[in-house]
């Protein structure tokens, strides 16, 4: 029987959550692995928001422009933008190669994949109908020409091709892969290409040109369990793995976890991949500015990116430190902050810069307490929070 020394036992009695007695397990994100507590949940797209989305009709005059609510990443069972489960997951980024990823929570029952394919098809038909209605409106009001039917079909036509446990929708400017594995949906939303104006830019050509890479991805992708760390070369997604890639693909993989028995505590790790340039300066690009030092970015994160709406924020305890992250010199800070709603909370954030040659990526990590999520229990003690953070950051290494 496993027993604890008296010093550890008394420490655990003093704090509701005890790091010393915590069970740790290896988990992987991107090309990295780290040790995490064994009682986590992961922020993902709620599966119900894909298979049975909430009705949210919107119109522009007489033109109906929306039928259903858009899905989003959260810890909750459905996505509502202002909910705290969404706020806790706000920095999640799921990007790999040319794809943005949409990974769902686990369904309590088998997913009706054929019905889901029909919903995806209906969505394309709906948007094509919206386009035609706007064309007709612009013709009536401004005498703008209406696109010939053949050109419309070339530009907005689509093909759906089935694969084992998957289908892909090919369009003239891109494609999306849909996978149904172990009661989860995995979406690979590909980048859209520019409209070249060339009549050969069709869904048929997209199928011809892109199917080899679709088949390659489908053959190399597999689901995985939380805390299952593959031994072969490849890339870890939440509940998924892509085997046999180059080991240095373009990516921005940031995953948010939350302690099941302490939902006030969220854990975030991000493999930023090769640095593309000016980072936070670019619209919609949430990456550290390569001109900042690691310490400057930690300061920026607390003051602007996370703490922009706080009443007060300041360094606490050890303040700045210089942990080793993946055997590199990083920067970290433990902070105390007062929220607008007056709750006092704490967080630990660490960052190590990527190098100019892009052989080592930027890595970002934090553990943050949001006492509003404590749910009828005391929030985690600040000292325990810091111990968890320091243990995890010391375990980060290339897989």
Automatic annotation (TrEMBL):
Residues 1-21 form the signal peptide. Keywords: Signal. InterPro entries: Tli4_C. Residues 270-289 are annotated as: Disordered. It comes from the Bacteria. Residues 228-270 form the Tle cognate immunity protein 4 C-terminal domain. The keyword Transferase does not apply. The keyword Kinase does not apply. This is Tle cognate immunity protein 4 C-terminal domain-containing protein. It comes from Buttiauxella agrestis.
């Amino acid at each position: 029987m496993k027993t604890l020394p008296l010093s550890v036992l008394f420490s655990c009695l003093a704090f509701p959550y005890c790091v010393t007695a915590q069970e740790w397990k290896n988990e992987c994100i991107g090309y990295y692995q780290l040790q995490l507590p064994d009682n986590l949940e992961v922020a993902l797209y709620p599966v119900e928001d894909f298979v049975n989305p909430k009705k949210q009709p919107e119109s522009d005059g007489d033109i109906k422009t929306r039928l259903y609510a858009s899905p989003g990443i959260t810890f909750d069972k459905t996505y509502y933008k202002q909910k705290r489960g969404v706020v806790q997951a706000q920095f999640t980024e799921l990007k790999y190669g040319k794809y943005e990823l949409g990974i769902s929570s686990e369904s309590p029952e088998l997913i009706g994949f054929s019905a889901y394919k029909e919903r995806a098809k209906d969505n394309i038909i709906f948007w094509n109908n919206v386009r035609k209605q706007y064309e007709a409106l612009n013709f009536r009001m401004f005498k703008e020409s209406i696109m010939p039917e053949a050109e419309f079909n070339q530009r907005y036509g689509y093909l759906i091709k089935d694969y084992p446990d998957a289908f892909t929708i090919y369009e003239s400017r891109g494609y999306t892969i849909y996978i149904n594995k172990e009661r989860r949906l995995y979406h690979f939303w590909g980048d859209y290409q520019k409209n070249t104006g060339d009549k050969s830019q069709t869904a048929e050509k997209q199928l011809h040109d892109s199917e080899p890479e679709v088949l390659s991805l489908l053959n190399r992708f597999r689901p995985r369990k939380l805390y299952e760390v593959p031994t072969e070369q490849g890339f870890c997604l939440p509940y998924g793995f892509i085997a046999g890639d180059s080991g240095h693909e373009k990516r921005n993989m940031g995953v948010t976890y939350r302690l099941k028995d302490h939902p006030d505590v969220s854990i975030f790790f991000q493999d930023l991949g090769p640095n593309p340039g000016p980072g936070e300066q670019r619209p919609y690009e949430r990456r550290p500015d390569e001109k900042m030092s690691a310490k400057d970015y930690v300061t920026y994160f607390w003051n602007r990116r996370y703490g922009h709406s706080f009443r007060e924020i300041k360094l606490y305890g050890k303040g700045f430190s210089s942990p080793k992250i993946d055997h590199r010199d990083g920067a970290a800070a433990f902070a105390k902050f007062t929220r607008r709603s007056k709750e006092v909370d704490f967080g630990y954030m660490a960052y190590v810069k990527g190098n100019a040659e892009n052989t080592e990526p930027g890595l970002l990590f934090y553990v943050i307490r949001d006492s509003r999520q404590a749910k009828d229990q005391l929030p985690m003690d600040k000292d325990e929070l810091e111990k968890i953070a320091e243990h995890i950051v010391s375990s980060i290494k290339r897989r």
